[in-house]
Amino acid sequence: MRMAVAAALALALATATALPAEAGGVKQRQRHQQHRIFEGIRSGSLTPGEAARLEGEQFRIERFERRLRADGDFTCGDRARVHHRLDRSSRHIYRAKHNRLTTP
Fold this sequence. Notes:
By secondary structure, the protein is an all-alpha fold. It has helices at residues 2-17, 26-43, 48-69, 76-97.
């Protein structure tokens, strides 16, 4: 199970670094959140199930952003929508890392 989570994490990190750079900081936030999830796995503060759920959420945010960028017009409103989802995801990461569930 840990190997599957590690593989999913590696894939997510690779896709987060492949995103185009822009002034809004979406790419940097996604990288930072991926790192926070990785640190939670490494420290044991995230269970495999929590890590998988958080990784799935990150993947869905990346997919949402790619759809918004697909037409070549990534507006300030689009950026705000992505940041809103990242805000919510950040709260989920914090709560999962601090909920007293750990892996041995």
